[in-house]
From TrEMBL:
Main localization category: membrane
Bilayer topology: Multi-pass membrane protein
Protein name as catalogued: NADH-ubiquinone oxidoreductase chain 4L
Pfam families: Oxidored_q2
Segments passing through the bilayer: 6-26, 46-66, 86-111
Keywords, comma-separated and alphabetical: Cell membrane, Membrane, Transmembrane, Transmembrane helix, Ubiquinone
GO cellular component terms, A-Z: plasma membrane
Amino acid sequence: MDMIKLCLNLLAISIITNILLAVYGVVKRPSMIKKIIALDMLNNSICILVTYIGYIGIGSVPPVYMSHDDKTLELLILRAVDPLPQALIVTAIVINLSITLFLCVLTLQIYRVAKTTNIHSILRQRELLEELSGG
């Protein structure tokens, strides 16, 4: 049983480390492609974390009520996995897919215009355009 707790703790530590690395990638990387990858990594890590939080323990069974016996119902209540985090994760995955697709299309359009995905270069080009236009 101690080995199972150790593995679950290592999983929690690795999830939190992954979240911190993803936040670092979103904040510090100038490339928009890397920012999109970091955002996707952040969302997936948070989804895993929510699933981990909703997990009760080893030997869990899905919440399916099969008989009218009180003992079976008590066993189900003690060992069932919470379905609410799972439903929220499915919704979050669909939303993440649409946002990632939108950001990829937006980045592609920016690349077609600016010929780069580096945010610093894009801002410099914008400043030069504003100076040339007299504004």
